[in-house]
Amino acid sequence: MSALAGVLMxxxxxxxxxxxxxxxxxxxxxxxxxxxxxxxxxLLLNIExxxxxxxxxxxxxxxxxxxxxxxxxMVPDLNTGKMVESGRGETCCQMEIVFIEGSIFFGSxxxxxxxxxxxxxxxPGMANLLIRMHKVNTMDxxxxxxxxxxxxxxxxxxxxxFLAGINHRVFKVLKNSGLxxxxxxxxxxxxxxxxxxxxxxxxxxxxxxAACPVSVxxxxxxxxxxxxxxxxxxxxxxxxxLEEYPGPKTIDASENTAPAADTRNEKGEHxx
Amino acid sequence: xxxxxxxxxGKPDALRALHFAAKLxxxxxxxxxxxxxxxxxxxxxEPPPVGxxxxxxxxxxxxxxxxxxxxxxxxxxDEAVLAPIDTIxxxxxxxxxxxxxxxxxxxxxxxxxxxxxFVEAINKEVDEHGYSLLIVAPPRRSRLGHLVAGNTTRKLxxxxxxxxxxxxxxxxxxxxxxxxxxxxxxxxxFPMLKQLLPAIRQPVDFLxxxxxxxxxxxxxxxxxxxxxxxxxxxTCQKIGAVNVRESRSRADTILEAxxxxxxxxxxxxxxxxxxRRMLGSLPMRILERTPSSVLIVKRLPEDDLDFMKDPLxxx
Lengths: 272, 315
Description:
Chain A is an alpha/beta fold. Chain A has eleven helices and six strands. Chain A has a six-stranded mixed β-sheet with strand order 2-1-3-4-5-6. In chain A, β3 (95-101), α5 (109-122) and β4 (128-135) form a beta-alpha-beta unit. Chain A is elongated and about 95 Å long. The relative contact order of chain A is 0.14. Chain B is of the alpha/beta class and 315 residues long. Chain B has 13 helices and 14 strands. Chain B has helices spanning 14-28, 56-59, 64-78, 118-129, 143-149, 152-159, 184-187, 189-196, 216-235, 250-258, 273-279, 282-289, 305-309, and strands spanning 3-7, 31-38, 53-54, 88-89, 91-93, 96-102, 108-115, 133-136, 163-166, 175-179, 204-210, 239-246, 262-267, 293-297. In chain B, the strands form two sheets. In chain B, strands 5-6-7-2-1-8-9-14-13-10-11-12 form a twelve-stranded mixed β-sheet, with helices on both faces. In chain B, α9 links the parallel β11 and β12 (239-246). The longest helix of chain B is centred in the C-terminal third of the chain and has 20 residues, at 216-235. Chain B is globular, with a radius of gyration of 20 Å. The two termini of chain B are 13 Å apart. The interface between A and B is medium-sized, with 20 and 16 residues.
């Protein structure tokens, strides 16, 4: 028995790779924590439970890391047409454009919901929301639930929810959950530009465009003059007046500022 | 630029897809790639020499999947899409191997040999390179054949993440029959039709099969769609007949109108996946029964009205 114990000690010592331990500790604080906790659990618990502890901790830390997708307000660059972060804080008076980078699933649902609702609260007069989803890889039922709640809020404001650049995986989730019909298939667009034009043509209030202090889009000068024919011959502005508008009847220039945006650059590949 | 992906399994039927793809590529000046998918993993066979230039003599020793691709390359050389092949250099990719050949003009055509599940492997390539159309020519099988060997077209119709052209009868010069009824599903056709228009030589026919008890607003939407499409194609001088037929069986009417050598163009079904898997869809029923070719447009739905009114869409 003593000899066997000795063999086990030598074998187990041979399995320790110091270089890997050092690398793991240096890599991230999460990896170092998992290593430490698993090591201590091995000493204090049965080995199978210690492995469970390590695996569960790793899963928990991974979920925590991916539960905060990047969400930025975007506007088109008037020179290049590319979508860029609204660094100067200017946003359209009638539509918020947000870019989500990451997955929308049960782990990130609360964060995404909170962020988007905060943006809507900050702009009580804004009736349209365009979500650029080019970098949303996956979405689950929690994501569908978020969009459904946002859609209700947007509809109460008399506007539309638009989705741009969704991939087939996300599209299948929308279709199978039935949300596709609620959002409206004509509100899904491959490019952000097409979605913006659709929103302008069908949902923008001419009076608000006329009173809006900023010109975010190339189309703004024409829309301010009430010229909707830029969308096609004979196209008229939606027959809406401010009387029908559920939001504030005046435009507050100070409100027309984006929420604190992440200052990292995003090179949008789909412009207007 | 339109990106075409053509599938070959080395069987005689696959030649139809290659010839069709070559013609489309030339007329659209499109980007073309060729793929073959093999079951299992590449670990099961002798690895090919990677990263070295292989002459014609050395290529005879290559594994079966690469031989299929080389055969496809020789077909494309005959179609004048590829320049005569001097040497090729095989590269490793995560799911198999690939090589490039020089096109007839200043471009390269990629040939992929992938291992794994047929539809998953193709979807992976589609996801990675953004192909807008997959061209396949599967062999015709009986019901028993489908039961034993599987129904390739059904799998693709259900799960492929891009538009699908199943080549049977007809070619790029055949009559295009557009099945449009103004529904969101059928409106997906028009952006693809716009892309393909330069390759279409004959006038484009429209077919709307109206159900006898169709609601008035559905009929109105269909008629508005046909009118818009008709105006658009009139300006492009590509409009043929606009047929409105009343029938209880849309599939039978479409099959009768298409005949044996047309290209039937339909929008992919937007029904729930479970419904489509259990009960099928109209495009799937057409696919199973028609001797003509079928193009199922599976682009994500988008409002088509903007581009129809755009006068610059005929080129």
